[in-house]
Amino acid sequence: MSSGHVPDTPADNLTEQVEGDSKKQELPAVPDMDVSEDTGFTVKIQAPGTEPTDFQVSPLAMVQEIKQVLMDREETCRRTCFSLQLNGITLDNFAHLRSIPGLQEGSILRVVEEPYNFREVRIHLRHIRDLLKSLDLTDGYNGVEGSSPSFLSCVTEECQEEDSKPKRRGDGLKQMSCSPPDHILPGSKERLLVPLLPHTNSGKSSGCLKVLTMSSWNPPPGNRKMHGDLMYLNVVTMEDRQFSITASSRGFYVNQSTTYSFNPKPANPSVLSHALLDLLSHISPVFKKNFSALLKRRYARSTHPFERIATPFQVFSWTAPALDHTMDCVRAEDVSSFCLGYEEHVPALARDWNEELQTTRELPRKTVTDRLMRDRAVFKANSDFVSTATRGAMAVVDGNVMPINPSEEPRQQMFIWSNIVFSLGFDVRDQYRDLGGEAAAHAAPVLDLNGVRAYWAVDQEGLFLIGTVVIDYRGYRVTAQTIVPGILERDQEQSVVYGSIDFGKTVVSDDRYLELLDKPSKKLRVQRHLVLNKDDTAVELRSSVEHKGIVGNDGRRYILDLLFTFPPDLNFLPVEGEDLNPVCQQLGFPKLHPHRLVCLRQELIDAFVEHREMQKGMESQDTKICVCLNMNITNIFIHLTGVRFPKESTEDIQKQKQQLKDAAVFLISNQIAAFTKSCLDHTSMPLDGVTLTEALHQHGINIRYLGTVLEYIEKIPQKERLDHVYVSLITRCAKHLFKTYLLAVEPSALSASVSHFLNCVLSSFAEARVIQQNDKLASRRRSRRRRSRASVGSAVTSCSNLTPTDLWGAIKAEAQEYYHYSLPCGSVEEAVDKCRLQRITLLREIAIKTGIQILLREYHFDSEHKTLFTEEDILNIFPIVKHISPRSSDALYLLRCGQSRVQQGCLKEGCELISQALGLFTNVYGALHQDVCICLRLLGRIHYILGDYAEALSHQQRAVLISERVLGIEHPNTIQEYKHLGLYCFAVGQPVTALRLLYRARYLMLLVCGEDHPEMALLDSKIGLVLHSVMACDLSLKFLENALVLTSKYQGPSSLKLAQSHHLLAKVHESKGDFRAALTHEKERYGIYRKQVGEAHEKTQESSEYLKHLTHQAVILQKTMNWIYKTGSDTNIPPFNVSAVHVNRDLEKLRTDAQKTSQLTQNNVEFVEDLQGPFEEHGTSQAIAQED
Known about the structure:
The protein is α+β, with helices and mostly antiparallel strands. The protein is built from 45 helices and 23 strands. The protein starts with 40 loop residues before the first strand and ends with a helix.
């Protein structure tokens, strides 16, 4: 999921100066913030036949949102067609509560049933379908309707009863309840896939109906419409009774029609129900019983509303169990009403996406309330547009949309559907011939999207951007864009009033555009400059000449084609006569890339500016002016010779070139080293390809530098610590090849071809071949179709002849050509041995990057005599969607203010500000969003440090649910959330639940990156400590010993964290009575402390005292054993003084230490020793703020 840069908000000017005297400062607050405007209040909701119930609302909420919540509540979930009335007046569904006169604390809103129309009946049926499938994860696995799976309740529900039982049980029972499955234990080589999707008790709901579908008697004839008939339904109950039901304006009733006889009159006895569920409960006792049970499970404590709410952006699962395909009338009607490629689906009834997106951006933004309403409208319109664009792009690739230029070649065709224009990422008409051809055409849409994201983040009033989404699906790259009003009716030459349409030969400018681009150019560090027109007149620009300004028929000024928003990367642009810095030349730069559309990232430019400021000691403003770039310099390096500059600009052009060369060497010499250092000192610890990409981008490093990063890593002694970088390079090369591979595959052979490709990448079976079971069903006519399609450009035979040797050879060649890196492995076996990778990690990364969904089962990767994947294992191919994700500027500002307060040690004030940010985020995005998750995580950690463990647990539980739903069940962030939740469960006295959560986190880490990772050392320490607290010492030792090995590898033999690991092991050995082993480990701890901080330090003294204690106990034990050997009697043996497990004391110590921010930052030893608390790796309020 893509996200834009942080918008220009008051937070951008936030200073984070912390005075040494900790003087009380005035709380930061958003300007013109009226807290009362967002203060919730309570109203009463009264449904027919029920007593009024209290309902908490926000003044910024709309009436429609209250209705949606009521439709999800158990008491009122049966109704959909109703209105809310206040004092007998019907409320407008789209009115905000604050604008309703007379609505106040304690007001009674009455639910009034309304007559149905055809649309309302469809909404009612969809709602019933959602209720009946609310415990079924099918939609989540299929990636539809904003559904995605979540398993937190499944992980915790098994141990709720155990935690509620009396705590005094035998050690044996405790040992059994705390033992993990064998594949989770340290040292296990099993990497199972099935546990990724745990089976839940609520899983599939009990059958309520066999069939609910549209009747073939639809639509009602004219005479029945006069009686109010809207639709006819067929129902088969669990008792095998068939009913024909009429949906009328008054409600639902059973009619007398049969399969072959139409009789719309009401059946006898006649029962009219406003809600279909009430009618079904009346005619079917089994439905009534099972539906009541379903509702009880749906609203049980183990399930959370966050598990049912739709996500704003669809999340796709890369694996799913075998699913039963059941009859679904709503799904079937959705497909039939999609009307793809039909003339009746003209834009007349479709949403005008361009008008929606631009109108929302034009909303007022003067006050906080105005900005909140605007942010909410922008986010909702954008998320709906992304969803529609994704569906349309899939339909285009599937061949369900007619092109607007059907006579052109397939690669040149364009499509319009639902007021969105779709184009394919191919080099049509040789537009990119000089820039890299097809490779450049494939990269251009993403670069354009990055430019849209950059200008969107600046949010310049009066400057408009078209909605843009880039979708990768089945090997095709599809760009979906909104339509500028009038652009299809005019020639491009007539439309453009700013920029150039012929690569800089003819350039036009506009005073209004220069004014509108003033703020974005400063923000993006673009220099005002002059270029020459074809008549040699100087034209002023504030962007690249490729940026086109178009005034639409709606009067709005649009800026398009933002391909060259960022400066070129000279390390990959060889140009004769332009020599790079010797540092770059020694590393082989400039290198030839497959295309010339290579740009530097905005993060690199910002870091470069900061570096220049520190180097030259200049003031910030002067330096910014110094490093502003003439974006048309790009044209010099990519051989677009149309752009010419005035003679007086020659000197400035040379300076600009030198700045670009300096930026290129800065990336090589500074940023790659800084990234590697951050990984080695664990400032950033990527677990998978997604987090690795994020870490690289944070340092301004493009993915094309992966090979350079690996070459740098191989030169350092600790290279084995960064083996996971190989995974990303290999899987990205495989993705590039897979894209080309899929283009040559016909739809009927997709499953077989995809499974064959995966076999060639991951299987040890050398004779893998395409086995398509359905080939024997092909008719002669179908064979002719296949041959005709192959003649267009498909090469199916080449796919079937692909071998593992061929594919891995292609992967090595792609690594050399694209990343300029010589991959040391030519097969999956060599990748496992030389690069220390695991195949299930490669499978996950490939599936996520390509959109493949595979069947959930155990795959035996080491089998050399059997094909690993079959076509039945390939369930689906999902799109990979890149888009803009608007963010709430005021909420971000409050969040930063809260983090600043936490950094200063003002935890309560910071907590209050972050809580306000959470409220604003929820108002803008809804409950499910990554920013909401960040706030909940921060609040949970602050409450934990303040000692309010129950509140910390509540916040963290929601954070886990949101992370699972929005990011994915095994995303690295989700793993971190599980770890924090396990900590808080342990703090509130639920050790069994804590262990299950930590085991889940460990399993996910094993799947994502394997056991050999620095994060695993910390996780194993946590698990070992919890096991020690319940006296499962033998099991605790397994995890702590593994943590010791990993800590020694990643932290070094003299690390203070290694000393702490030795101490934890000493504690467990002491609890077992093994004083010899305890002394050995504590001596190691003492030696490290004495070497690192000296004899006089309190930690060294503490270790010395503990050594004396262990020695004393060991002496007592030896005397006792000698007495037993001498006398043969074990009577009168004094008890050993074994240290008890002080869980509460450790928690209190962590909470106290965490509040001493200033002391901890001054003393590195105490900072590291926060690990002495049960889990918290940072343990300081400063670390809380900095983590996110």
